[in-house]
Design goal:
single chain; alpha/beta; D-Amino Acid Oxidase, Chain A, domain 2; 2 domains; 6-stranded mixed β-sheet; 33% helix; binds flavin-adenine dinucleotide
């Protein structure tokens, strides 16, 4: 069968590759001049299989005043006169209860473990050079109270198959000596040895090249899909900006936040909203530039500074620092005050990193209110499939989402329960 996939971010490229592996013909269509240039570009690099708890949890109600009033909060909410924002927020607040958060975490863990197994299989079949490492993850807590509270989540996740340990300050510093720079402000860490990192852009580009080189794969860049041609409840073709029509048996929407626009033309809505975040890519200082006996300038194990919601990942000769959730900007423009805040926090924690040499980036996480992606058939058009709304976890969930979508399309038994990933 022939598939047209719209969008060559990490989700579209993973979907295209899975469909080719399953013997189909694929046309991968991307509006930009190359793959992975939008949200999949300079993200946090975390393959965070065990850290999938959604943003919507009961703690939201406690934190909301801080998000509204404190300009230096890692989460910011700027209210707009925009029905889409209010519709998303209403659903987000409705989902912020213990039962929904737990159900979402369970569904996301299943999808992330499927993703991990799939990614392992793909890179074992044929390596992709994307600074991929299983270096484990440390969630660093400054507050002993929050560390104690996290114990509950660790206990729950253990019932779902996750391997995590709570480490005190000394044990954490022994494992990751760069954390000595946090001094007494570090209370302890949760350590997950199985977590991985990689450069999402290089992974996306690697998959895109595989698709382009495959005899049954075609890639189109600089090719924006403007609308679908439909007949009798089916898509017959995707029309590009230059008027060209791309025909196929099935169509997959994997164009992130913009999926909303193409669906709306067909009278179908999905509740997606962009949660803006920022990253710094900081060159690592050479060992000779460091004073003898000083701790390493940056963590080798991935670190999440829990209270500041900042993640650190070593990717080749840079450290990628990603942070912040800004609700309500409506674009991916960089706000200088947010970058200043991020650089200040990094400098406080890891002073040897030269933040002035950092490359800065911002992207909009395509988020559903519940934090669960939509992996499903369209409600209106029989041969249109959705792989959208992966929020803060698109890199982590990409390979599993592709496998699940293929199972749904082919009518084979799904490897995990697909019900939580239906449009809501
Ligand atoms: C600051 C930040 C840090 C993050 N850190 C992590 C992390 O550490 N780990 C993790 O798992 N996730 C992380 N994420 C989330 C992750 O980056 C996203 O979930 C993921 O990139 C979404 O991928 P996507 O393919 O759906 O969207 P995109 O990467 O945005 O791709 C969509 C593509 O569709 C194309 N397109 C749009 N409209 C059309 C059209 N009409 N025709 C043709 N093409 C079109 C776009 O040009 C784009 O290339 C982070 C996100 C941010 C912002």
């Amino acid at each position: 069968m022939k598939f047209a996939i719209i969008g060559a971010g990490v989700i579209g490229c993973a979907t295209a590759w899975e469909l080719l592996r399953q013997g189909h013909q694929v046309v991968l269509i991307e509006a930009r001049e190359g793959p992975g240039l939008v949200t999949s570009h300079a993200n946090g690099g975390q393959l965070s299989y065990d850290y999938v708890a959604p943003l919507a949890d009961p703690g939201v109600f406690r934190d909301l005043p801080k998000w509204l009033l404190n300009p230096a909060s890692p989460l910011r909410f700027r209210p707009q006169i925009d029905p889409r924002q209010w519709c998303w927020l209403a659903a987000f607040l409705k989902a912020s209860n213990a039962a929904t958060a737990k159900a979402s975490t369970t569904a996301l863990l299943q999808l992330s473990y499927l993703s991990r197994d799939t990614l392992h299989a793909w890179v074992n079949e044929k390596p992709i050079d994307f600074h991929y490492k299983t270096n484990g993850k440390l969630i660093a807590y400054r507050s002993p109270h929050l560390l104690e509270k996290a114990r509950k989540q660790v206990e729950y996740q253990a019932t779902q198959g996750s391997q995590q340990r709570i480490l005190g300050r000394e044990e954490a510093v022994a494992l990751e000596p760069s954390l000595a720079q946090l001094g007494q402000s570090l209370a302890g860490c949760i350590y997950t040895p199985t977590e991985e990192v990689g450069d999402c852009y290089l992974f996306t580009k690697g998959l895109f090249e595989r698709v382009a080189q495959h005899p049954a794969g075609t890639t189109l860049t600089g090719a924006k899909v403007l609308r679908f041609k439909t007949q009798e409840g089916k898509v017959t073709a995707a029309q590009l900006e230059n008027g060209e029509l791309i025909e196929a048996d099935h169509f997959v929407l994997a164009n992130g936040l913009r999926g909303h626009d193409l669906l709306k033309q067909q009278g179908e809505t999905v509740n997606l909203y962009g949660l803006k975040g920022y990253s710094l890519s900081i060159p690592l200082p050479s060992d000779s530039a460091m004073p003898p006996g000083s701790p390493p300038p940056a963590p080798s194990i991935s670190v999440t500074d829990y209270e500041r919601r900042i993640v650190y990942a070593k990717l080749g000769d840079i450290v990628r620092v990603a942070a912040m959730v800004d609700i309500g900007d409506g674009n991916a423009e960089i706000r200088p005050e947010r970058i200043r805040y991020l650089k200040h926090e990094v400098k406080n924690s890891f002073p040897a990193l030269d933040v002035d040499r950092a490359q800065t980036w911002a992207g909009e996480r395509p988020a559903t209110p519940e934090g669960r992606p939509i992996i499903s058939r369209s409600r209106r058009l029989d041969n249109l499939w959705l792989n959208l709304g992966h929020g803060a976890l698109g890199f982590t969930l990409a390979c599993g989402s592709a496998v699940l979508l293929h199972a749904l399309i082919s009518g084979r038994p799904a490897p995990i329960d697909p019900a939580p990933f239906k449009p809501r």
